[in-house]
Automatic annotation (TrEMBL):
<feature type="domain" description="Mur ligase C-terminal">
    <location>
        <begin position="307"/>
        <end position="420"/>
    </location>
</feature>
<keyword id="KW-0131">Cell cycle</keyword>
<dbReference type="InterPro" id="IPR005762">
    <property type="entry name" value="MurD"/>
</dbReference>
<dbReference type="Pfam" id="PF21377">
    <property type="entry name" value="MurD_N"/>
</dbReference>
<comment type="pathway">
    <text>Cell wall biogenesis; peptidoglycan biosynthesis.</text>
</comment>
<dbReference type="GO" id="GO:0071555">
    <property type="term" value="P:cell wall organization"/>
</dbReference>
<dbReference type="Pfam" id="PF08245">
    <property type="entry name" value="Mur_ligase_M"/>
</dbReference>
<comment type="function">
    <text>Cell wall formation. Catalyzes the addition of glutamate to the nucleotide precursor UDP-N-acetylmuramoyl-L-alanine (UMA).</text>
</comment>
<keyword id="KW-0067">ATP-binding</keyword>
<keyword id="KW-0963">Cytoplasm</keyword>
<dbReference type="GO" id="GO:0008360">
    <property type="term" value="P:regulation of cell shape"/>
</dbReference>
<protein>
    <recommendedName>
        <fullName>UDP-N-acetylmuramoylalanine--D-glutamate ligase</fullName>
        <ecNumber>6.3.2.9</ecNumber>
    </recommendedName>
</protein>
<dbReference type="Pfam" id="PF02875">
    <property type="entry name" value="Mur_ligase_C"/>
</dbReference>
<dbReference type="InterPro" id="IPR004101">
    <property type="entry name" value="Mur_ligase_C"/>
</dbReference>
<feature type="binding site">
    <location>
        <begin position="109"/>
        <end position="115"/>
    </location>
    <ligand>
        <name>ATP</name>
    </ligand>
</feature>
<dbReference type="GO" id="GO:0005524">
    <property type="term" value="F:ATP binding"/>
</dbReference>
<dbReference type="GO" id="GO:0005737">
    <property type="term" value="C:cytoplasm"/>
</dbReference>
Amino acid sequence: MKRLVVLGGGESGVGTALLGKAKGYDVFVSDKGTIKENYKQVLIHNEIEWEDENHTISRILNTDVVMKSPGIPDKVALVKQIREQGITVVSEIEFASHFTDATIIGITGSNGKTTTATLTHHLLNTELNVGLAGNIGDSFAKQILEHDYENYVLEISSFQLDDIKDFKPKVAVITNITPDHLDRYNYEFENYINSKFRIAMNQTADDYLIYDADDTVIVNHLKTNPVQSTLLPFSLVTPVENGAYFDDNKIIITINNNKIIMPISNMTLEGKHNVKNAMAASTVAHLLKIRKQTIRESLENFQGVEHRLEHVLKINKVQYINDSKATNVNATYYALESMDAPTVWIVGGVDKGNNYEELFSFVNEKVKAIICLGVDNEKLMSTFGNMVDVIVETQFMSEAVKIAYKLAESGDNVLLSPACASFDLFENYEDRGRQFKNAVRNL
C-alpha cells in the first residue's frame, strides 16, 4: 500500500488526505501548528491518522510521497530532510490532478488572480459543468472526490506551482507579474518570475497561455524562455491578432479567425485593471465556446470579490472601501489609481520587502491622510511622512476606522488597502477585511 504524508492540516491538506484515502493510500497528516477543530473532526470521522503541534520525523520519512502545504517554505529543516531522502514532494494541485480527466483552467499572477478566477468561473458556469478551486473555496482535491466536475477553474499561487511535476492546465492564465513574496525567493525577482511560469512548463502546442501583453516582465521572459503553448495575449493599448484587446470601450477577442466584440460600458467592475481581468476571463470563455450573449450578460451581472475594492457603506457622504486583499504594493497601486475623490488611506502590516515608490504620484495627487495600521510602521512613516499633512499610527482596526471617520469630509473616500501581509495583527487578509467592515458598521 502506498503511503502519503500530508504536511499541514488546513483546507488543501485535509482535502488531499481525503482524496488520498479514497484512492487507497495509507495517509498520515502532520501539522506543526494547531489543526482547526472543524478539520480535526473531518479527519477523525474519516479515520485518518493525524498529529498537531508536532512533527514525528520517523512517521514522516517513512513514506512514498509528501504533499506539503503551500505555506511551508522549502528552507524548513524538515522539508530539506524529506528531499535529501529522495522522497517526492508535491503540492495539492499536483497530487489531485492525477485523479481527474477534467479540462483545467489554471490562473496565476501577482494580482487579479482571485477576481479573474471568480469571473472566469462565473462566465463558464451558465453553460458548463465547472468547479472553482485552488487558492479559493473548497480544495481541488476535495472537489474531485465529491463532484468530479468536467472543468475546473483553479486560482494558483506561486507556492503551489513550486511543487508541481506533471500538472498541465489546458488553459493557463498569467494576469501579471510584479515583485511579491520575495522573502520566499531569496529576494531574487527572477526566481519568483520562473515560479509563475511553471504554470506553462508542461503545456504543448495544443494548450493555451493567456497573458498580459502590456506587462514587460512577462513579455521579456517569453522572449528569452519560449513556451510550447499557443499564445493568446491581451492588451489595453495595442491591437492583438490572436487574443484580446481593448478599443473604444469594447473588448475585441479573436481566436482562430473567430472574432467577438464585447461592449463593456455596463460592466459592474470598475478600474483599468478590471478591464484586463475581464479580457482574460472572456478569452477563456470564448476559447471554451461560451456564447457571446452569455459572456456579455455575465460580465454585466458579476458582483466582484469580497475584500477587493469592496464598497462597504456610505456614511455622511463618505465612501468606505475594503481592499484588504491588497497584500502587495502593486495591488494598492490599482486601488489608488481607481480613487476619484480625496482619500484617507489605511495601510500597513507585514512588509515583504516593499518598494513604495510607484505609489508616490497617486499619494501626492489623491491621498489627504494616512493611517498606518501595523506592529512596525517605521518604514511607512519615514516614506510618506512628508507627502501628506496627516499621518498617524495605530494597532487597532476599530481605532483606525474612528480616526478615518474624523479625518474624512463629505465626498471623500476611506480606503483600506494595506499593501502588506496581515499576520502581525490579524489571522489573514479576510479577518482584516471583516474587522474593517464591522468597525465601519459600528460607527
